[in-house]
Request: fold
Amino acid sequence: MVYVPLSERPEWSDVVPVPQNDGPNPIVLIDYSSEFVEVMSYFRAIVAVKEHSPRALELTKEVIARNGASVFGWNYRWCCLLAMGADLIEELGYLNDLSERFPKNYQIWQHRRLVVGKLGAKYSQPEIEVTTKVLANDCKNYHAWSHRQWVVRTFGLWDAALEFCTELIRQDVRNNSAWNERHFVLTRGGDNKANLEQVRDLEIEFTADKIRLAPDNESAWNYFRGLACGKLLSSVPAFKQVPTEILESVPECSLALSLLADVFEEEARSDSLTEDQKGFARAHVQELWEQLIQIDPMRTRYWCWRIQMLKE
Amino acid sequence: MFVTKEGEDAGRWCPDGRGLGTHIPRGSARAEEPQASTIAETSSLDPATTLICHKHADYIVALDKEKDTFEYVATEHLRMSGVYWGISAMDLLGRLDDMNKDEILSFVTECQHPCGGFGGNIKHDPHLLYTLSAVQILAIYDRLDLVDPNLIATYVAGLQQEDGSFAGDEWGEIDTRFTYCALSCLSILHKMELVDVKKATEFVAACGNFDGGFGATPGDESHAGQIFTAVGALAIGGGLSHVDKDLLGWWLCERQVPAGGLNGRPEKLPDVCYSWWVLSSLSMIDRLSWISGEKLQEFILSCQDPENGGISDRPDDMADVFHTFFGIAGLSLLGYPNLKAVDPIYALPVDTVARLGLSRI
Ligand SMILES: [Zn+2]
Reply:
């Protein structure tokens, strides 16, 4: 779109622009474009008299178009919308376009939160869809995930949230953000039926399947360990069975070896096992760690530290 | 301290694409003019095994003189942090005297607003990120007397929220980064009593995840940068008991990839700046030795620009002041010879931290 200077637009003829005062000796020379300078001069004039009008709202668009991170511009826009009782659904249309073009701009997401918070639950579904679109292009976008969590939590959309991360994990089993979302949904869902402890057996099954697809996938193994929910690893048989099974086909899988070692270490320290059983576990864990030193030499000092700690 | 609060293309943690020139292959955006003397000097020091200190110092000094370059203009909104990265790197290299101290100090004081906060540049809105950078610069120069600590501390304290978290500025973005900025700032100013430290550390604890890491707000994914801020805030606020050191240490140690560098999240590429976030976090929880320092050192040295000086995010990308500082700081933590020691919590030279009376026992 061609920029028509504000000084040549009839609707702005009554406004005297306020130039920026840099003082007599600005140390840093900032090369702003002349358009930006003019827009900001008119914006300062509008803010000075607290004008909340359609043209002020339009002007904030000009400010934002030139500096999308201008908190000042965004905040004044919100003040105008509120003061004018403007149509927030129309505002969402404007934001949808921006969100897709600038998905890493925090201010846009923050503004959406204000608008949708005011519009209410009826607009929660389209909000979810916006994040779905953004995540389809960049599945690790931190702002989009955070915004999505806000929508899910604020409007209680837990079931659909679980389906979504199941689908994303199906598409890319290494998507760490999707695994994190899964944990978020299952632990922060409140009194929702999908509570992690209650669905743990199903989750173990689900995760084990994903580990089988890619045994070197750190994200799935971390999630798997997280299913212990703070309890001892050795209290869940799957934490021994799954790595053992993986090691049959991939004997050098360091993530499987390290989980198995952690389980045996717990057993070696356990008070409820016999001395014989503890001795067996101790010998076994030592063997696993020595194997890990061979496979994963970069972390040799870590594995040696583990060996040392058990001896003490 | 951190990259930016703004910019549609700027990464939250690492400048990606525009701005600082990162991820741009070396030589594609800047004309290279090899000088005979430079090449001769280079050949005597092997950049694969040696930190070419004098080149990095010259690179940083030159940055501030070339005010018409693309990088200079593109980073004007975060100039305050740029100055902090530059002088911290110079101090670690033992070359702080080469910087124009008077000009820097007057720039810093000119960026302060009547509310007490500092902007990223003159006439820019105040923000916690730049307020911390300003305080860090003044601390390095031992010139905190130029500002009123009560005024700054009041601004910082005013950003604490009901739940203990901190907003980055008056408009309200919440992030553990800002908790770190607030606590670091107040600690340097010896004004911790102005905020609810316990609530602040409890908010950080609520950002903890099942994998031992921390995110920006409760529920967010673990991320090495966020872990640095979370663990740093807990270290300053006396809340390290909220950290499962072995679990977190393991997650951090898994960030080292075969190339020797460290990444910020699983499946991401290694990067010099993430190497610092991970390394300093490991140091704060006394697990520094868990990764291979030798391999990491090799990686950082391989990211040097042997001709023009400066360090980039990955080998053969274009250098910038952000990665130059974090590269040098990482090497310092690894005990590289002839560098000043850096403090892992404050990301300041250890002698500055000691002078402030903030050393860890
Ligand atoms: Zn980086």
